[in-house]
Amino acid sequence: MDLVGLGWRPEIAPAILSHLDQIDVVEVILDDYFNASSTKLRSLRTLSVQTPVVYHGVGLGLATSFKLNPKRLQNLKRVLDYLAPDTWSEHLAFVRAENIEIGHLASPPRNMQTVYGTLENLELIKKVVGNCPALENVATLIDPPHSSMSEPQWVSEILKGSGCNMLLDLHNLYSNAINFGFDPVVYLKSFPLDRVQLVHLSGGEWIQEPQGFESNLKGQRLLDDHVHDIPEIVFDLLGVLGQFVEQPLTVIIERDGEYPEFQTLLNQINRAKRTLKNAREQRTSKMGGSPECTNI
Amino acid sequence: MPVSNELLKWEGRLSAQTFELTLARLYTDPVFRSQFLSDSLVALKNCELTDDERKSLLKIDQAGLLMASHSFLHKRKKRFSNRSVLKKLTFKLKIMFKSLTGRFN
Q: pLDDT tens digits for B52-98?
């Protein structure tokens, strides 16, 4: 069964709690609980009794040839040991190199060296934590240098080598497609969609390219910022995904600021539910000629 | 592709790490980035990169580099400011708790 819900943020937590009848699932940021007291961790358990909860990491930075920071890994283990969730996720992101903190989720060079480094880090995670996160595609404003693979190829290699599932962020996917000249639907279909377990929906804004620098693009790029509403095309992509795959999806709407009236977020949840329901119905009516996933 | 012992000893790790360090510096160090954008060859002179790695940086998407670096800086500032606010709030709460319970040290 498909589930649609919302990212748990302190600013909207009371509203989420009073509308749990309309929210199938909430997603909690794991890193917010790395130094949490046992009382705060217990509150998470209480939340998970009230509603299904999925957990999401944002700072491991596992897509690198450097080994994971052992302290971060131990913090993660402590929280996951306590919560024992069925599902958790992390980004396929380059966040730090040795002592240099990039501070956000950069896209690493997409080549076999970063595939190997990421697989090694995932092996370590499995050894320490006991299971594997669903891996999220990240948005990028720069075509990562020293890349020899496309993003779908690079992600596919990591999923194949690790056995992990995928968290497909449809706004990240849309941003990368549109910023680097791909058709979003064709780009979507080139990911290993049979491995998608979780989905993120969010919004962003167009920003101008700086003057005086060479670029093959159109003078502006789409920044994934989670503080704008979800664009129509992202719902359309959810519909394509829902028609394309058989497995149930857990869809999370991410909003990190400039919060609208809570009803707007509820409307987006309902919109996503309707989109998925229609897509599943169309899939069922087309059964017998179901499409297959392809890789580029 | 099963993860094997071979993979754990994969070649090119040091080179990949040097490249990632250089890329992380370009993203986060405004002086290095500025040197790189005005004269890439000179800026990369002391970086121990392979020819392929050096070439890839010489043809880097410069507009994207500036946009991404700006976005990362914004995120770092935001995170730092959130932490400061949190620290101040925790400190205030501790003071309040102490005054309410009469636990002055």
A: 999 999 999 999 999 999 999 988 787 666 655 666 666 556 655 55
Could you say which of A97, A104, A145 has the minimum Cβ distance to residue B72?
A104
Contact A209 B57 (CB under 8 A): no
Nearest chain A CA: its distance from B91 CA (Å): 16
Residue A175, CA distances (Å) to A13, A201, A222, A244 in order: 28, 12, 6, 21
The alpha-helical segments, DSSP class H, found in A190-254 are 232-244
Which residue is associated with the tokens 């004269």?
B39
By the CB < 8 Å criterion, does A32 face chain B?
Answer: no
Among A31, A67, A100, the strongest candidate for a mutation testing the B interface, having the largest count of B CBs within 10 A, is A100
CB neighbours of residue B88 within 10 Å: 10
What are the tens digits of pLDDT across the range B10-54?
678 888 999 999 999 999 999 999 999 999 999 999 999 999 999
Please tell me the distance in Å from B2's CA to the nearest CA on chain A. Answer: 5
Question: Per the CB < 8 Å rule, is A209 touching B67?
Answer: yes
Closest CA to A275 of A201, A169, A224, A177: A201
Instruction: Give per-residue pLDDT as tens, A163-178.
Output: 999 999 999 999 999 9
C-alpha span between A20 and A50 (Å, rounded): 8
Task: List C-alpha distances in Å: A227 to A217, A253, A270, B99.
Answer: 24, 11, 19, 39
DSSP classification of residue A126:
H
**Pairwise CB contact (< 8 Å): B56 & A145:** yes
Model-level pTM?
0.89
Alpha carbon distances (Å) from A165 to A2, A56, A186: 16, 14, 21
Q: Do B64 and A215 touch (CB under 8 A)?
A: yes
